[in-house]
Design goal:
This protein is an alpha/beta fold. The protein folds into two domains: 73 residues, Winged helix-like DNA-binding domain superfamily/Winged helix DNA-binding domain (Arc Repressor Mutant, subunit A, Orthogonal Bundle); 209 residues, D-Maltodextrin-Binding Protein, domain 2 (3-Layer(aba) Sandwich), CATH 3.40.190.290. 39% of the residues lie in helices and 23% in strands. It has eleven helices and twelve strands. Strands 3, 4, 5, 6, 7, 10, 11 and 12 form an eight-stranded mixed β-sheet that branches. A two-stranded antiparallel sheet has the order 1-2. The protein has a two-stranded parallel sheet with strand order 8-9. It is globular.
């Protein structure tokens, strides 16, 4: 690179968002700028670097190997700058900007939030819903401070604290042939209309494992991105689903019957995950400690 660099923070942020979406118009919408401006910024950055960062086929773009390598560096650099900003803001008494928590389903947070609001009434709390396979990226780019995941997340610098272990139960419509049963074998679900989140969600991964162990494949009739909606769909008779015990304990649907599965693998573990290399303001440390105390009964002192 030569001369005055055009590779400023705005250009790097623009590249980062385009790389995540691999779509100019979606990136422009997130950045709240015009599409031509995004295209020009990416083009200038590529010209300065001397390599193409994307493969272009008509209106479609895909990150190439140069772009993927550069993105890793950009993610790291922008995360360091964000950590520095937050660290200085806290040192100056200007606050941390609150806490951003990602979860596979917001139902997991529902019982936790009232107590947190009472304990920290003025704290800015932002929630994000996403599958577990996207969480490591959110932590790495500082788009989330903490994640609640139903499977261990892999990645350099990530650390997890176990929050709870619970049974995963079979939910069936009231009046279903299996309603009223205490225990159900996986073999009895052969051919049953099955409701599940899509690939990448822990419920789908668990269901695939349990059905495969029984020599079956689930007869999926609904595959969605909102795990919390499954209970309502079971209640209206669309099919059966595997749901965590907390869904039953919440008592949200009286027209759903529950049964245990005759498989010891019908369990889930909920983890609180953070990037230990990220700066954790007091608000983040407080929320982590509060979540651990809520789910485990541990003292609120300390941090995850």
């Amino acid at each position: 690179m030569k001369g005055d660099t055009a590779m400023d923070l705005l250009a790097l942020r623009c590249f980062q968002v385009v790389a995540r979406h691999e779509h100019i118009s979606r990136a422009a919408a997130e950045l709240r700028v015009a599409q031509p401006s995004v295209s020009r910024t990416v083009a200038r950055l590529e010209a300065e670097l001397g390599v193409d960062l994307f493969e272009r086929r008509g209106r479609r773009i895909r990150l190439n190997r140069h772009g993927a390598a550069f993105l890793r560096r950009v993610d790291r650099a922008l995360a360091e700058l964000e950590d520095g900003r937050r660290e200085l803001a806290e040192a100056a008494g200007a606050g941390s900007g609150g806490v951003t928590v990602a979860s596979e389903t917001l139902m997991t947070l529902a019982a936790l939030l009232p107590g947190w609001r009472r304990a920290r009434p003025g704290m800015d709390l932002r929630l994000r819903q996403c599958p577990a396979d996207a969480m490591a990226h959110l932590l790495r780019t500082r788009e989330a401070d903490l994640c609640l995941a139903s499977e261990p997340l892999t990645g350099s610098g990530l650390e997890s604290v176990e929050l709870l272990r619970e049974e995963v139960l079979l939910a069936v419509p009231d009046g279903h042939r299996l309603a009223g049963r205490e225990d159900v074998a996986m073999a009895e679900l052969a051919g049953e209309p099955f409701l599940t989140p899509g690939p990448g969600h822990w419920q789908r991964e668990l269901a695939d494992r349990l059905f495969a162990r029984a020599g079956l494949r689930p007869a999926v009739v609904c595959e969605g991105n909102e795990p919390g909606a499954l209970l309502d769909l079971v209640g209206v008779g669309l099919g059966v689903a595997l749901l965590p015990a907390m869904a039953r304990d919440a008592g949200l649907r009286a027209d759903v019957a529950w049964a245990r599965l005759e498989d010891d693998g019908a369990r889930r573990v909920l983890w609180l995950v953070r990037d230990r290399e990220a700066f954790a303001p007091a608000a983040v440390r407080d929320f982590a400690a509060f979540a651990v105390a809520h789910f485990t009964g541990a003292p609120t002192a300390g941090k995850a």
